[in-house]
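Notes from the 1:1 (GR / supervisor)

We went over the backlog. Supervisor wanted to see one worked example end to end before approving the batch request, so GR pasted a single chain during the call. The sequence is below; no edits were made to it. Supervisor asked that the structure be written out right there so they could see what the output format looks like.
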Amino acid sequence: MESPFLTILASVAAVLLVAVTGGVGYLTLAGWRDRRLREEEKREMRRASSSTTSKNTAPKLKKKK
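Structure output shown during the call:
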């Protein structure tokens, strides 16, 4: 006959295993999402700064007299 203590202990271990696995999955997903958003933000910043600098750094033509 099984001891009720072992049954409870096994149940608690199973619940903790599911909780920890879910937590790791959530943190992995959140990290992936944040990294993707940061990379997208960097690309937009580069695009915005390159379009701004290309307008400002264009060589100015001198007028001939």
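Supervisor's comment: The longest helix spans residues 4-56.
Batch request approved.
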